[in-house]
Write a structure and sequence with these properties.
CATH superfamily of the domain at 29-71 and 168-339: Phosphatidylinositol (PI) phosphodiesterase
Strand order of the largest sheet: 1-2-7-8-9-10-13-14
Bound molecules: 2-acetamido-2-deoxy-beta-D-glucopyranose
Oligomer: single chain
Distance between the termini: 50 Å
CATH class of the domain at 29-71 and 168-339: Alpha Beta
Number of strands: 20
Length: 536
């Protein structure tokens, strides 16, 4: 908890200097339907850190959001019709129920597909009082698992007097078990401020549309994957998307996965669709789901979730009306601190880093301007395969002070930049005609490898890079880098060898017996040396 608070404080500090720079912002209003700042919707509270729908998740989300966040609750109904907040129809997914009621799992059809698990319809709320929540994504910390109880939606509304968002994912299933979501939402909205009710089922929203027409609660149609079938109309979500006029007859907004707006291919961002503009034209608000800081997202954002959020709300053409996030502090900071900072959106990340650097120097009580060099690691290797021309160009345009080159030698003596001496690590050599060139050097690594010194430069150039299966990236040679690095940018080359080693390799590869141990020992025992190559 201490660590979290520290992080939080730093985050707020980072926010402050930028907030002061208000005069730098353009006066562009938000391009949301209402013109207001987009909403932050906290999925199950701060579910990126704590078990989804736990009191600590909701409490923390409320504490750290700079502006109001709406608390999202996935409603499930128990046998005795208690509405609880739980992220999945299968209680086995995010709770300790599999340990508590070992022999009470069942198999039911859900939208025609048999699912095995623990279903809320088989348990009373009293039964669930001894069941505790846990993280349902296995890459998240299990630290808070098994401590927090399942809460009723009513309790969540009481914990958090701010607005709630109820998501009704499976009305058809509950109807088959004689439980009414309609009755539940009508009853809870009498005592709690429910701002939005969403569902991926057309008939459910239609069944409550007239009831809510004159109320403050808005209805939102949730789109699932394009080729999935909507269970009550038997149309795919993709075909329903073409009929927004129809959606507008029973909902005032839509909730869509990120890719509906910014499609990705091989994790590279494609041009945006016109969905937001089309929906706004119909008078529909647009909310976007699937924002998580800890899963891969498009390389174009350089792993910076702030720039991802900003691409949805702060671009030249549109802004979505809200984002559904597992880490609500990030969009909250993005909207309140980093938005509308001018036309240089691609410079945003750099601005953030520079501010952080400045902040670091303030924190360490340095009065002088921080002298911190930014050194790339294999170029912008987070955005493109490391040591490729694209990666180096991006590193230079991102403002790196020094670009680096881990030097390897080819069999014809060309020094090239590659993050590993073993081509198997960084290229698709295994699927190439050179896959028979593997050899074993226990001094280098255990097992076989296909080493740079076994192939010529022109052979290595013909290999594909592993990321982005359909892309071909040019590998850089150290001489090619010199063209790229301007006088401002320095090139820093490292090799596991000095020039003596290079010639040793050279003579090694020209000998017929490359395994000759004397030759190889000399090769690996050289201390690591860094070569500084100067360019003008
Ligand atoms: C939830 O449970 C279902 C059925 O057991 C399973 O198919 C699904 O992958 C689970 N989801 C998660 C997020 O674990
Ligand atoms: C489940 O196990 C409990 C005891 O652990 C037992 O009392 C109960 O009868 C079992 N139920 C079924 C359906 O097997
Ligand atoms: C849904 O549509 C598919 C083909 O589009 C059809 O085969 C199926 O029978 C339909 N199901 C219902 C319940 O209407
Ligand atoms: C939109 O959907 C409604 C209801 O399913 C249908 O009557 C109408 O023909 C559809 N319009 C278009 C353009 O597909
Ligand atoms: C994302 O990056 C790729 C690779 O540089 C580029 O081709 C694409 O146009 C970028 N996408 C957007 C939307 O800028
Ligand atoms: C905005 O619209 C223009 C014209 O349609 C297009 O060229 C540009 O790529 C769009 N920008 C974004 C961020 O979608
Ligand atoms: C954008 O960045 C360029 C170069 O970094 C700078 O010259 C220009 O003034 C900036 N424009 C705005 C609107 O900040
Ligand atoms: C590897 O395979 C290529 C053709 O695919 C062949 O020309 C070459 O002689 C082979 N090399 C060895 C060492 O077997």
């Amino acid at each position: 908890m201490h660590k979290l608070r520290w992080l939080l404080n730093v985050l707020l500090l980072v926010c402050t200097p930028l907030a002061f720079a208000d005069h730098q912002r353009s006066s562009t209003p938000w391009q949301t339907l209402s013109g207001d700042r987009p909403l932050v919707i906290a999925r199950g509270g701060f579910s990126g850190l704590f078990p989804d729908s736990s009191s600590i998740a909701y409490g923390f989300a409320k504490e750290v959001s700079i502006s109001n966040a709406i608390m999202w609750c996935d409603v499930q109904l128990t046998k005795d019709a208690a509405g609880v907040c739980f992220p999945d129809l299968n209680l086995g997914n995010a709770s300790t129920i599999d340990q508590v009621y070992k022999n009470r799992s069942k198999t039911y059809p859900v939208n025609g597909v048999p699912i095995h698990g623990w279903f809320p319809v088989d348990f009373s709320f009293h039964d669930l009082e001894i069941v505790f929540l846990k993280q349902n994504l296995n890459f998240r910390a299990p630290y808070y698992d098994g401590t927090y109880p399942i809460l009723t939606a009513n309790k969540v509304g009481k914990l958090n007097p701010r607005q709630m968002w109820l998501n009704i994912q499976h009305d058809v299933f509950y109807s088959q078990h004689y439980l009414s979501m309609r009755n539940f939402v009508i009853s809870i909205t009498k005592s709690r401020h429910v701002k939005y009710i969403s569902s991926p089922e057309v008939d459910f929203l239609k069944s409550i549309a007239t009831k809510f027409r004159s109320r403050a609660t808005k209805l939102v149609f949730r789109f699932l994957e394009v080729d999935q079938t909507e269970p009550t109309t038997n149309q795919t979500y993709g075909s329903l998307l073409k009929n927004l006029t129809y959606i507008k007859t029973f909902a005032s907004g839509v909730l869509v996965p990120k890719s509906y707006i910014w499609p990705v291919e091989d994790l590279y961002l494609q041009p945006s669709t016109s969905l937001v503009l089309d929906a706004h034209k119909e008078g529909l608000e647009v909310f976007t789901s699937d924002f998580m800081n800890d899963v891969p997202f498009a390389y174009n954002y350089s792993y910076d979730p702030v720039s991802e959020y900003l691409s949805f709300v702060d671009n030249a053409n549109f802004s979505v009306d809200g984002v559904l996030s597992d880490n609500p502090v990030t969009p909250s900071a993005a909207f309140d601190c980093y938005s509308h900072m001018g036309a240089n959106l691609s410079q945003q990340a750099l601005t953030t880093y520079k501010t952080t650097l400045k902040l670091t120097s303030i924190l360490s009580f340095e009065t002088e301007k921080a002298k911190v060099l930014i050194i790339s690691s294999e170029g912008a290797s987070g955005d493109f395969p490391g040591c490729t021309d694209l990666a180096y160009k991006k590193a230079v345009s991102d403002g790196a002070d020094i670009i680096d080159c881990p030097v390897q030698m080819t069999s014809d003596g060309v020094p090239i930049c590659l993050g590993s001496i073993n081509l198997l690590d960084r290229t698709m050599v295994a699927n190439s005609e050179f896959s028979n060139l593997s050899s074993s050097f226990p001094e280098l690594q255990s097992g076989n490898g296909i080493y740079t010194f076994s192939l010529t430069w022109s052979q290595i150039k013909s290999l594909r890079q592993p990321t982005g299966a359909n892309h071909y990236f040019h590998q850089s040679t150290s001489s090619r880098l010199s063209k790229l690095s301007s006088s401002r940018v320095q090139l820093h080359a490292s090799a596991e060898t000095d020039s003596h080693y290079t010639t040793t390799i050279d003579s090694c590869i020209t000998r017929s017996n490359i395994r000759e141990s004397g030759c190889y020992k000399e090769f690996t025992l050289q201390p690591i040396e860094y070569l500084k190559i100067k360019y003008t």
